[in-house]
C-alpha cells in the first residue's frame, strides 16, 4: 500500500509585493508606476505596478542575473543603475528584463568592456534608450563604440554627457540609423567628423571645445548629414566662424550658439536654414565687432536672442560695424527680440533698426545703457505686447512723446 501525500504549499508568489518596501529605503508611486530605492545592497521585491525603477545611489558592485531576481514579476521598462558602484558584470546580467526600454548606467566605476558586456546582455526587443553620463573612460572612440551597440539594438536615444573623448566621428556611427536624440554635451570634444544620421532630431553638443573648422560641415542639399534635425545646441564651444557652416539643415527649428568667440556675423548667415524659428546667439564675449547687413536674413525666424553681446548699436564707430537700416531688414516674421546687455543708442538708431520688424510682440532692452526712449517709439510697433527695459538709466520718460500716437 502506498500513501501518496500531496503536500500543497501555498504559493505565496514571493516576487510580487503589493506595498512598497518602505523599510528598505524605497518610495513608490502607483500612479506613475514608479519606485526609487537608495542605499541598498540588493534590489528588493517591489509592487507589481512598477515599470520604472530608479535604483541609483546603491551598492550593487557586481551585476549578474540574480541581481534582478526580485524584479521577475514586473514589466520593467525604465531602469536606472546610476551611481551604484558597479565595476563588474556577467554576460547574462540583464537577460531577464524582457520589457526594458531605457537603461541608465551613469557614474559607475566600470571600464568600457564591462559596460558593453552588461548592455549586450539585454534581450528586450524594446531597448532603445541608453544613458551613460559621467563615465570614467578615456579615448574610447565614442563613434565606434556606439556603432557596435547600434548593430545589436535599435537605439533612438543616447546620452553620453561629460565624456573624456576629444574627438567624435559621426561617420563611424553609420549603423545608428534610427538614432533621434544624441547628447554628448559637457565633454572634451574638439574635433568633429561629419557623417550621416538619417533620423537625428536633436543633437546636444554644447559645452565642448568644438570649432567647426570648415564650411559645408553639415553637408550639401543632396548629401546632408542631418536631414531631419530640429534642435542643434552648440553653445559654449570655440566656434569663431559661421560662414558657410549652416546649410542644408532644412528642418532645423532651434539653434543655440551662445558663448562662442565669434567676431563677425556675416550677411545671410542663417538664410539656408528655412525652418529656423528660434535663434540664440547671446553672451558672445567681448570680441564681436561686425554684424553685416542682412546678417539675420530669414523668413522663418520668430525669436532672436542677441543678449549679452556688449555690442555697440551706435552710428559711426570706427571699430564696430553694423548697418542700422538693414540689420533686421529681412527678418519679416520676427516677433520676439532680446537685445539686452548691448549698448543701444536711443537717438535715431534704435528706431531705425527696428522699423522693418513690423510684427514685433516682445522686446527686451534690459541693461542697454539707455537714458531715454526715442520719441514716438511704440507707435512704430503696433503689435508690441511686452516691453522690458529694466536696468537702464531712464530716470523719467515723457509719456506724451514716447507713446505719442498710441494714446488718444
Ligand atoms: C517610511 O519610513 C520612514 C522611516 O523609516 C518614515 O519616516 C516614512 O514616513 C515612511 N513612509 C511611508 C510612506 O510610510
Ligand atoms: C522612461 O524613461 C524615459 C526617458 O528615458 C521617459 O521619457 C519615460 O517617460 C519613462 N517612462 C516611465 C514609464 O517613467
Ligand atoms: C530594429 O528595427 C528593425 C526594423 O523595424 C527590425 O527589423 C529589427 O528587428 C529591430 N532590431 C532589434 C534588435 O530590435
Ligand atoms: C513669414 O511671413 C510671411 C509674410 O510676411 C509669410 O508669407 C510666411 O509664410 C512666413 N513664413 C513663415 C515660415 O512663417
Ligand atoms: C536670452 O538668453 C539669455 C542667455 O542665455 C537668457 O538669460 C535670457 O533669458 C534670454 N532671453 C529670453 C527673452 O528668453
Ligand atoms: C544716469 O542719469 C543721470 C541723470 O541723467 C546721470 O547723472 C548719471 O550719470 C547716469 N548714470 C549712468 C551710469 O549713466
TrEMBL record:
InterPro entries: Dev_Immune_Receptor, Leu-rich_rpt_typical-subtyp, LRR_dom_sf. The keyword Repeat applies. Keywords: Leucine-rich repeat, Repeat, Signal. Residues 1-17 form the signal peptide. GO terms for cellular component: extracellular matrix; extracellular space. This is Uncharacterized protein.
Amino acid at each position: 500500500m502506498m500513501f501518496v501525500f500531496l503536500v500543497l504549499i501555498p504559493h505565496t508568489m514571493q516576487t510580487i509585493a503589493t506595498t512598497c518596501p518602505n523599510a528598505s529605503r524605497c518610495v513608490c508611486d502607483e500612479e506613475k508606476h514608479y519606485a526609487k530605492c537608495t542605499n541598498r545592497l540588493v534590489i528588493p521585491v517591489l509592487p507589481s505596478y512598477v515599470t520604472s525603477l530608479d535604483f541609483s545611489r546603491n551598492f550593487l558592485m557586481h551585476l549578474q542575473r540574480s541581481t534582478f531576481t526580485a524584479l521577475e514579476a514586473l514589466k520593467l521598462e525604465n531602469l536606472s543603475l546610476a551611481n551604484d558602484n558597479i565595476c563588474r558584470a556577467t554576460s547574462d546580467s540583464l537577460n531577464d528584463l524582457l520589457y526594458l526600454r531605457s537603461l541608465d548606467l551613469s557614474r559607475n566605476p566600470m571600464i568600457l568592456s564591462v559596460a558593453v558586456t552588461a548592455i549586450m546582455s539585454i534581450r528586450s526587443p524594446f531597448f532603445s534608450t541608453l544613458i551613460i553620463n559621467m563615465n570614467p573612460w578615456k579615448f574610447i572612440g565614442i563613434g565606434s563604440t556606439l556603432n557596435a551597440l547600434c548593430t545589436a539594438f535599435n537605439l533612438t536615444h543616447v546620452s553620453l554627457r561629460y565624456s573624456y573623448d576629444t574627438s567624435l566621428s559621426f561617420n563611424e556611427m553609420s549603423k545608428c540609423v534610427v538614432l533621434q536624440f544624441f547628447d554628448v554635451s559637457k565633454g572634451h570634444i574638439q574635433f568633429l567628423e561629419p557623417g550621416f544620421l538619417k533620423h537625428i532630431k536633436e543633437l546636444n553638443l554644447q559645452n565642448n571645445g568644438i570649432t567647426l573648422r570648415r564650411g559645408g560641415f553639415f553637408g550639401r542639399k543632396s548629401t546632408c548629414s542631418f536631414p531631419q534635425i530640429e534642435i542643434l545646441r552648440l553653445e559654449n564651444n570655440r566656434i569663431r566662424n559661421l560662414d558657410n557652416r549652416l546649410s542644408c539643415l532644412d528642418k532645423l527649428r532651434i539653434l543655440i550658439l551662445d558663448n562662442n568667440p565669434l567676431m563677425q556675423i556675416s550677411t545671410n548667415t542663417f538664410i539656408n536654414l528655412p525652418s529656423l524659428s528660434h535663434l540664440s546667439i547671446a553672451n558672445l564675449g567681448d570680441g564681436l565687432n561686425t554684424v553685416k547687413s542682412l546678417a539675420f536674413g530669414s523668413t522663418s525666424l520668430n525669436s532672436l536672442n542677441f543678449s549679452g553681446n556688449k555690442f555697440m548699436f551706435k552710428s559711426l564707430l570706427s571699430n564696430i560695424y553694423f548697418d542700422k537700416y538693414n540689420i533686421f531688414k529681412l527678418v519679416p516674421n520676427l516677433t520676439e527680440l532680446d537685445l539686452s546687455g548691448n549698448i543701444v543708442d536711443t537717438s535715431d538708431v534704435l528706431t531705425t533698426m527696428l522699423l522693418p520688424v513690423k510684427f514685433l510682440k516682445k522686446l527686451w532692452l534690459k541693461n542697454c545703457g539707455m537714458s531715454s526712449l526715442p520719441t514716438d517709439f511704440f507707435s512704430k510697433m503696433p503689435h508690441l505686447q511686452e516691453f522690458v527695459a529694466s536696468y537702464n538709466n531712464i530716470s523719467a520718460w515723457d509719456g506724451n512723446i514716447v507713446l505719442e500716437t498710441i494714446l488718444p
